[in-house]
Sequence to fold (392 residues):
Amino acid sequence: MFKAFLLKYAEIGVKGKNRYIFEDALIKRIEMALEKIDADFTVTKESGRIYATANSEFDYDEVIDALKKVFGIVGICPLVQIDDNGFDDLAEKIIDYLDKTYPNKNFTFKVNARRARKNYPMSSPEINMELGGIILDAFKDAKVDVHNPEIMVNVEIREKINIYTKVIKGAGGMPTGTAGKAMLLLSGGIDSPVAGYMIAKRGVVLEATYFHAPPYTSERAKQKVVDLAKLVAKYSGPIKLNIVNFTDPQLYIYETCPHEELTIIMRRYMMRIAEHFANESGCLGLITGESIGQVASQTMQSLNATNDVCTLPVYRPVIAFDKQDIIDISCQIDTYETSILPYEDCCTIFVAKHPVTKPNLNVIRNSESKLGEKMDELVKTAIETVEVVWCE
Ligand code: ATP
Ligand code: MG
Fold:
């Protein structure tokens, strides 16, 4: 029944002179999403609206699923497209469409006609009135509700006539690639994939860095992070994942520094190394899944100590979220089931029994200074031996 989709966008609409840049980026992302599935679509822009029109048969659910992952789309409207064969024909097709689409005829509705082609012989209010009457005659239980209708019968008169009543919620946000690039510190947990998703949603391209500590962390733990990056990439587009072997720096910190400071010092080195890769590839910020007070390393004092080593801005989109709110998003974007797989990540192995919760910056800096040049060498080696995996 549906041969095309009207794709609604919101925020892009207010971009003034630059609007076309955002629209074109959105069209490109829609094309990329549809290329991945077995269907042939043409994506066009027409007076502030974007249409994806099918040139072949397609699987409806698969197309909706693909479009729901495109940032920048707020609403997906499956369209019935008909030729203009006069008003009586239009009315007949609308009745037929409503009949097939809504088995229960006990609905409230409103007709919303939009005449983009001004040579159509009736005005929009006339179309609304006429169609409204015809629908009431056809379905005796239906009622008009102009304020809060259950079904909005949208009729767009263009070259062809588009009819739609459904608006499926899109991902929202801004089209990927309209806001530069950032480096996500991606662990195998629940929070960092959500953090990456949230920043990507604003149009930012993601790159990611994962620190592992073989043999203390398993191959499966690493695979889990690759899988998470792939899940986020379904929304954000391909993610270059830097996998850093952090075992030697970590063991050396373990030997040299007070154990209650381990996590903070380790986190500072993670930030430094991630920032190195970020600068190398032109990222304009770092992203973490930190949330105030969630664990000892995420108190305000700990965040301050971690932030101390960064020059790039650190984006922490879940900073004020409760764990349950983060879990809700991870369920919604489908990363939750993977995140809760039980494989250890490197932080959980080298944790002290009583980590500091209010680290003093001078104390931390002083402990770190004991690591000396040997640490610089270990960090250098970790950077040089990075393994890169493209996740898409
Ligand atoms: P998550 O659920 O994202 O793993 P967490 O609650 O386990 O977070 P921490 O272990 O304190 O929290 O990590 C805080 C943030 O530091 C993570 O959200 C992530 O951005 C980053 N991070 C932690 N461990 C790693 C790692 N092994 N590799 C890359 N980044 C990491
Ligand atoms: Mg973690």
The pocket of magnesium ion (ligand 2) is lined by residues 187, 189, 345, 347 (CB under 6 Å). The first strand starts at residue 4 and ends at 8. The CA atoms of residues 202 and 301 lie 29 Å apart. Residues 4-169 form a domain with the VC0802-like fold (CATH 3.30.2130.30).
